[in-house]
Design goal:
Bound molecules: glutamic acid
Mean pLDDT: 96
Number of strands: 12
Low-confidence stretches: none
Number of domains: 4
Shape: elongated
Strand order of the largest sheet: 1-2-3
Number of helices: 20
CATH architecture of the largest domain: 3-Layer(aba) Sandwich
CATH class of the largest domain: Alpha Beta
Radius of gyration: 32 Å
Helix content: 40-55%
């Protein structure tokens, strides 16, 4: 059997982390099995679907490095196939027209609610006579199409992640709507609904394994009945665990992120995010090796090693993985990724003019980066922003002898257009000796004067970068005014 899997997002929003993770698992499985990965856009809900969401979904998948072998297929271009399938079900007597009005259905629910029963359709139009149908049509009622679901049955499948799953027919809410009523007045029925369309597509596209979120389990039970009704064999199903927040609830907008764009803007790398998403529910055979590309993961991926339990989203872990990638990245590549974040923060960057300076800056701050966005706070002062002096720095500056230390550094800098690492060291040593203080005092004072704080990236390197822009002397002069 050649494995064929798919991701079937609805373009009703930007690429969501849950969809992206489902895509990752499908992709890993397809690549592991030498199978085919299909992209299908489920855009039958015309009111909510937008082309820009389709673009966002496709560019998000591409950004993550998830390539598809077939598609994108669009459901709106396949309507005739759904209509045909509905006709087949009608012809077989497995589906029928239901003429209930919204008011009638509402009334039915009210009564069920009052009797403390779960809401369901009571199958009242299942066996209408020809005369009854005609009478409804005459009234101007338009039917929806319902697929028959027998209460007295058990739907069982061997889920490749959850093992045996069984669902009672009576828990599926009665005969289900597979097509809405026609609003145009010239078709027997209107918009085809998800469960029917997805089954027709999965049949036509020869999907062998349906891997999707656990929130679709009840749909799977309904869909199995549709496969049987259409007289075709049922694919394998695998339901992946939900992504949960720290409180154990489904990760949502309230957690500050939903779409892949959010993660991109927060400064995560696609490689790190893909790596982390594959760990959201899957345990690699070597659980200690946590840093890998999707391609590497595909070599050992199996559905047996996907957990049933919900996967908690762990920001610290994602940050850690991101930092591992950032710290190992080639400097020029990192620099090109940092530039947009600097620009977004209003820092003007001229790569042509300042290439070497920017490379040195990137090399200096790289070990301190957890997210790409950190480059802004790590380099603001190097880019010449006015330093604000924190309490610790002010205290250092006000110590006895510091005024003289900084003044003699300024003196030593006079006329020096270019400052090398050795020049800087020599000047520090010179001042240490001349002022008869400890070297640590000179270093701390210099850091306080140049950066306004006592912690930060490599001092000499920061100084050299500031010097090249001519900002070190003015900083030290300003610091002297505070003493
Ligand atoms: N359009 C559905 C969704 O986005 C697809 C579910 C499925 O994979 O069958 O949830």
């Amino acid at each position: 059997m050649t494995v064929r899997v798919r991701i079937a997002p609805s373009p009703t929003g930007n690429l969501h982390i849950g969809t992206a993770r489902t895509a990752v698992f499908n992709w890993l499985f397809a690549r592991n099995q030498g199978g085919t990965f299909v992209l299908r856009i489920e855009d039958t809900d015309e009111a909510r679907s937008r082309p820009e969401y389709t673009d966002n979904i496709m560019s998000g998948l591409a950004w993550l490095g998830i390539d598809w072998d077939e598609g994108p297929f669009f459901q709106t271009q396949r309507l005739e196939f759904y209509q045909k399938a509905i006709q087949t079900l009608l012809d077989k007597g497995l589906a029928y027209s239901c003429y209930c009005t919204t008011e009638e259905l509402e009334q039915m629910r009210e009564i069920q609610k009052a009797n403390k029963q779960a809401p369901r359709y009571d199958n009242r139009h299942r066996n209408l006579t020809q005369e009854e149908k005609q009478a409804f049509e005459k009234e101007g009622r338009k039917p929806v199409i319902r697929f028959k679901i027998e209460d007295e049955q058990e739907i069982v499948w061997n889920d490749l992640i959850r093992g045996k799953v069984s669902w009672k027919g009576s828990d599926l809410g009665g005969d289900m709507v597979i097509a809405r009523r026609d609003e145009t007045g010239n078709a027997p029925f209107g918009q085809v609904l998800y469960n029917l369309a997805v089954v027709v597509d999965d049949i036509d596209m020869n999907i062998t394994h349906v891997i999707r979120g656990e929130d679709h389990i009840a749909n799977t039970a309904k869909q199995i009945l549709l496969y049987q009704g259409l007289g075709v064999s049922v694919p394998h199903f695998a339901h992946t665990p939900l992504i949960l927040n720290q409180e154990g609830r489904k990760l949502s907008k309230r957690d500050g992120v939903t779409s892949i764009d959010d993660f991109r803007e927060m400064g995560f790398l696609p490689s790190a995010l893909g790596n982390y998403m594959s760990l959201l529910g899957w345990t690699p055979p070597d659980a200690t090796a946590e840093i890998f590309t999707l391609k590497e993961a595909s070599q050992t991926f199996s559905l047996e090693r996907v957990n049933k339990a919900g996967a908690k989203f762990d920001w610290d872990k994602l940050d850690w993985i991101n930092s591992q990638y950032l710290h190992k990245m080639e400097i020029n590549e990192l620099l090109s990724l940092l530039i947009p974040f600097w620009k977004k923060a209003g820092i003007s960057v001229d790569l042509e003019k300042d290439k070497i300076w920017l490379e040195s800056l990137t090399t200096m701050i790289a070990p301190s980066l957890t997210r790409l966005t950190d480059c802004v706070k790590e380099s603001r002062l190097i880019f010449g922003e006015t330093a604000t002096y924190n309490e610790e720095a002010l205290k250092q500056l006000k110590q006895e002898g510091v005024k003289e230390v900084l003044s003699s550094i300024l003196e030593g800098l006079k006329g020096k257009t270019h400052l090398t690492h050795d020049d800087a060291q020599a000047l520090i040593n010179e001042v240490t000796k001349a002022q008869n203080v400890k070297k640590g005092v000179v270093m701390r004072s210099l850091r306080a004067g140049l950066m306004g704080e006592l912690k930060g990236p490599d001092l000499t390197q920061s100084w050299l970068l500031l010097h090249e822009k001519g900002w070190d002397q003015s900083r030290l002069e300003n610091a002297l005014k505070l003493i």
